[in-house]
Specification:
Order of helices and strands: EHHHHHHEHEHEHEEH
CATH architecture of the largest domain: 3-Layer(aba) Sandwich
Strand content: 5-15%
Shape: globular
Mean pLDDT: 95
Helix content: 40-55%
Number of helices: 10
Number of strands: 6
Distance between the termini: 23 Å
CATH superfamily of the largest domain: HAD superfamily/HAD-like
Length: about 230
């Protein structure tokens, strides 16, 4: 697809940048890493399993028609991960959940958002996260003052990649799909947004191969720092 491996090619007509939160702006492994003195060598396996089960539960609950908010899903995923790895500590569980509300942002996140805002783009988050979780993480990372909207799947009661989720950005920002650049570090999320009609930048930090799913993102970058150049900022 034209432009997928050419991050220097500007995308014309973009009026808003809408960001996925977890794994894109916020480092989902940072909660476990901040508790590594208690987890020891298990901190990284726990972070990886916690995230994997968290995503699986969002997809499975959507298919089952049994929605629960992301805080509930995150807690269930943590319980599964801790039991799988033989970690039994109620105090540590509570600490990890608290840390998840204050995940560290990737270092380039705030400068990239500031550059886009300075260029006149509207900025928003569109996330699986519950509203309280997104508000807490945005405030802790210093991103809240830069955002025009923080959109949660709780408004539609189903998780990404349902098209209903991506339509939230259109409805809130009052823009056409080709005027919105959706940014995600999750390949499946990037495909979901593209299938819903948005323009999409996949932030492929890990250098993963493309997902074998319908619709590919418009562009691929390795860092959020590359985004301003894409829109001529």
């Amino acid at each position: 697809m034209a432009g997928l491996d050419s991050p220097g090619a500007p995308l014309q007509g973009v009026r808003a940048a809408v960001f996925d939160a977890y794994g894109t702006l916020f480092d989902v492994a940072s909660a476990s890493e901040r508790a590594r003195e208690a987890l020891g060598a298990k901190w990284q396996p726990l972070a990886e399993l916690w995230r994997a089960k968290q995503l699986q539960y969002t997809w499975l609950r959507s298919l089952m028609g049994r929605h629960a908010d992301f805080w509930h899903v995150t807690a269930d995923a943590l319980d599964f991960a801790m039991e799988s790895l033989g970690v039994e500590d109620a105090g540590l569980r509570a600490r990890l959940m608290s840390l998840y509300e204050r995940l560290g942002a990737y270092p380039e996140a705030r400068p990239a958002l500031q550059a886009l805002r300075d260029a006149g783009l509207a900025l928003a988050i569109l996330s699986n996260g519950a509203p309280r979780m997104l508000a807490a993480a945005s405030e802790a990372a210093g991103l809240a003052p830069l955002l025009d909207a923080v959109l949660s799947v709780e408004a539609v009661g189903i998780y990404k990649p349902s098209p209903a989720v991506y339509r939230l950005a259109l409805d809130r920002l009052h823009l056409w799909p080709n005027e919105i650049l959706f940014v995600s570090a999750n390949g499946w999320d990037a495909c979901g947004a593209k299938a819903a009609g948005l323009r999409v930048a996949w932030c492929n930090r890990a250098g993963q191969p493309p997902e074998r799913l319908p619709e590919r993102p418009d562009v691929q970058v390795r860092s959020l720092a590359e985004l301003p150049a894409l829109v001529g900022a």
